[in-house]
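Two entries, shown back to back:
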Amino acid sequence: MSFQSQSLAVFTKDFRLEWRSRFGVSTVLAFIASTLLIVLFSLRADLLSVSVQSGLVWIIILFASLTTLSRVFVSESERGTMDLLRLNAPSTSVLIGKLAYNFLFTLLITGTTFLLFAIMVNMPVVRPALLLAVVMLGSSGLAGTTTMLGALVSQAVRKGAVFPVLALPLLIPLMLLLVRVTQAVFTGGESASYANDLAALVGFTGVTISASILLFDNLWED
């Protein structure tokens, strides 16, 4: 079986398991909806500045992602299928398959949150192309970081407690960049004001995914 076929098989397995139970999707959508309603009515998000609104939307996305993204490897450990996966697929194929699934799931979280938030607070999207870039880069950065950490946490004893502790310090720089670029999506500021942050997002995503590929082999074989 080729490398692409093995990666696709890992992705398809995770997708089918989620489709059967729909646990992750249901949990995330319920979290997003309830959090948005609390933010809207308790904090009067529609009256806040664009910078604060941009921060709120990414905070919601961050914690929605942390509730589910680590499970791609933790669930393997809990079901006792980790060794079977090691025997049937090389480490790179496993990582790419898991990363692709996490990216798709994060893309669903990010797109849904932005859509509902923009509708609820009536935020006009001034730069649609930039919004698409932010959503794609933000989803890639979140997926790359959480996939690698999920593999690390799956070997720990107290998996649920360890993952947020490790993830938050690594994701704070990404969140700061995303918030700054998101402000330009809704305000339409000068191109120079967000071009450097956008380039930094590309660099962060590239470094994260590259580091995951380079380091995952040692982690997977231990």
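entry 2 starts here
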Amino acid sequence: MNILITICARGGSKGIPGKNIKILNGKPLLHYSLELALAFTFKYGGDVQISTDSDEILRCAMELGYATDYLRPAVLATDKAGKIDAIRDCFNFAEKKNKKEYDYIIDLDVTAPLRNMIDLERALEMIQENPVALNIFSVNHANRNPYFNMVEKNETGFVSVVKPNLGFKSRQEAPEVYDMNASFYIYRRRFFTEDWQISTTSFSLAYVMPHICFDLDEPHDFIVMEIMMRENLLCFNL
């Protein structure tokens, strides 16, 4: 089984300048994902491919002994560029350079580092057990439910529940829904060779994380995550 782990990290960030290499609890944010990627490939074999347009990010990766001659094309490094396209480009590069076909591509999101080896192992087992599945991605139980307490504005200007309520009188009665936390995605090779464009397909699985995980979008997110790490409030081992 050939595995490629991709880590996409653009140099630009409007919300948090230098986000991907910003220090979080004593080390660059990038290192949390890269350390796990290197540990996973050491244990199971495989390759790691970072996709970035930033020399500074590559220098940060070299602190862990990682180096690559791949540089993300400028057209894939804009705010509007899709991540699937970025992953596909570095996947194609890695297959050509390493002269192999990857069975699975594991993408680790730098800004959602609260995952560990066990999460990746269990998710990989899930997709291996379902040959029809194209991919699997990490989720958490949602705090809001579109059947019960999420609304959207309709054509009349009023709001209505996002999904038909069907008579649910409490959120507990409604179907269970999840938040995609963007921490990791695992794709079968054919996801990219068949040119799928979005990660939510008709053949997607969800890995429900048994612990907290959230994305770092705003400056206060860094503060919250750092406090949780420093005070050992995560309830699991990174």
